[in-house]
Known about the structure:
Its cofactor is Fe(2+). This protein has six helices and eight strands. The chain has 223 residues and is α+β, with helices and mostly antiparallel strands. Strand 6 and strand 7 form a beta hairpin.
Amino acid sequence: xxxxxxxxxxxxxxxxxxxxxxxxxxxxxxxxxxxxxxxxxxxxxxxxxxxxxxxxxxxxxxxxxxxxxxxxxxxxxxxxxxxxxxxxxxxxxxxxxxxxxxxxxxxxxxxxxxxxxxxxxxxxxxxxxxxxxxxxxxxxxxxxxxxxxxxxxxxxxxxxxxxxxxxxxxxxxxxxxxxxxxxxxxxxxxxxxxxxxxxxxxxxxxxxxxxxxxxxxxxxxxx
Length: 223
């Protein structure tokens, strides 16, 4: 009798794909290529992780995702972004150097962690607007009004249950990465009038504690 979670990908198929990713990374400086917008895997609902990998395989995959995220660089990476439609993500954020910006953005340091089958739900209805970018939409950024606080549920790579409330930038990162696992890109939630290149002008827009100058210049609302 099978005990596989409905919708889960068979273990053999997941293991084969993970081994291909690991082998390919060995030939490319230990990193996985990050797929870009337009790739179907970014629009698919990721299969739940149901123990398809043994502990060594899962550890190697997590380490590959961590290296790839750091090298990009980014503060989060979901498995679909390296072509693997599995509900896993890694996150880590060093936080802000400027304490005033950190306070406005509520962006403390977020230690490295692994999210397995994560889900989030709103805690209150307050939303805040900031610029976001994405490793799978290279060269662009846009303002997204995200829930300020969310309840995160799921598990970590050891199987320990996650059930906690996150606020500010950690909540934003969790929403962004969890959305990837449902086939949603940040652009689907963005104020499209705010869309800008990640160039010198874009850096000025995104460098403000809140994107107030960009909102006035480009004509979009802020939450």
